[in-house]
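U., I forgot to send this yesterday:
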Amino acid sequence: MSVRGRVALVTGAGRGIGRATALSLGAAGAKIVGTARSTEELEAVVAEIRSSGGDAEAIVCDLADRAQATGLVERAASAFGPVDILVNNAGIGSSADPRPLAEFRDPFWDLTLELNLTVPYLLSKSVLPHMRSQHWGRIVTVASINSRLPSLHGGAYVASKHGVLGLMRTLALEVAPEGITVNCVCPGPVRTRMNDARVEYDAERLGREVSEYEHGLTPIGGRLAPEDVAPLVVFLAGDGARMITGQAYDVDGGVCMA
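Result:
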C-alpha cells in the first residue's frame, strides 16, 4: 500500500478532511504539497508533517480564482517534482447559503459548481501529463453521500457532487490502461466547520436540539471525524489499490445503507 516517496497534492489541506488526509499521507511517507486559502492553518499542517520527519510544502491558493486553479499543479511540481497523487478535497457546502431551489441565488450556484466540479476537472486535467509520463498516478476525489442522495435546500451542492462522481468515473475509464486510477470517497456527515453550520441549520429548521439531531445523523450514531475518512484516501492513493478504479466508496456511518 506504499505511497512512500510519492508527491501528493492535497487541496483544502488546512482543516477538516484535507488536513487529516495530508497528515496521514505525510505519515505514510508521501511528499505533501498542501493548498488552502488560510496561510496560518496550512502552515500548521506543514509544520506538523515536518516535525515528524516528513516533507511538506504549502501553497496558499484561492481555487475560486480560475487563474490560480489552472496554475496550481505546476506550482506544486516546483516543490518536489511531478505530481503522483492528486486529492481533490477543497469545496464549498450548502451550509454557506441553504435555501430552496426556487429562491436560490445564481452567484452561489456558480461558485458551488466552480469549486466542487470545475476545479477537480481542471486539476485532474493538469496532472495527467505528469502521471502519463511515468505510467503511474492516483486521483482521489472527496465527493459526498450527496453524490447519491438529495439534500433539502442544497441543490447546487447535490448537483455538483453528482456531477463530480460522473466526471471521475468517465476519467477512470479513459485512463485505465495507463497505470492511472481515479476513485471517489463519499463521506457522510463529518464534524467540520462547514458541516457544523449545516447541522445547526437543519436542527433549527426541524425545531430540534443540535445534540439530539446530531446523534441521529448516522445509524452508528453521531457524525464522523475527518480521521475516519483519511485512511481510505491513503489506501486508494497507494500501490495496493492498483486494480481499483472508477469506484465511489461511502464512509458514512451507515447512512446510505439505511
